[in-house]
Design goal:
Layout (H helix, E strand, L loop, with lengths): L5 H4 L9 H18 L2 H9 L2 H19 L4 E2 L2 E2 H21 L4
Antiparallel strand pairs: 1-2
Helix pairs in contact: 2-5, 4-5
């Protein structure tokens, strides 16, 4: 897996409009990891990468359902929450792959 190079990290972060979202996502992932333990990685260890496909697929299905019905919120999960979850599972998947790249 290729991570950003050092030059990219040296860009002026004051003008980076994405940091608001990525910092928030990092906080959410950290809080959930503290609450649930590393349950995502444990699931992948036990059942393989299919777990990642299933979790991401569930979120895609949720997004599709919300959009088709023209509703941005159902029960207590909004389209924004679902997009955040999708990004979160993607980051967890990348983290898992990086941690297991030499296996």
């Amino acid at each position: 897996m290729r991570l950003l190079n050092t030059q990219s990290k040296e860009l002026n972060t004051m003008n980076n409009k994405f940091l608001e979202y990525t910092d928030y996502l990092a906080d959410v992932l950290n809080q959930k990891n503290l609450a649930y333990g590393d349950s995502f990685s444990k699931s992948l260890d036990e059942d393989g990468l299919l777990v990642l496909k299933i979790r991401l697929g569930d979120k895609f299905n949720r997004i599709s359902s919300l959009i088709k019905r023209g509703e941005l919120k159902e029960n207590d999960e909004s389209l924004e929450d679902t997009l955040l979850d999708l990004a979160g599972y993607s980051i967890l998947g990348l983290k898992y792959l990086k941690e297991h790249e030499n296996e």
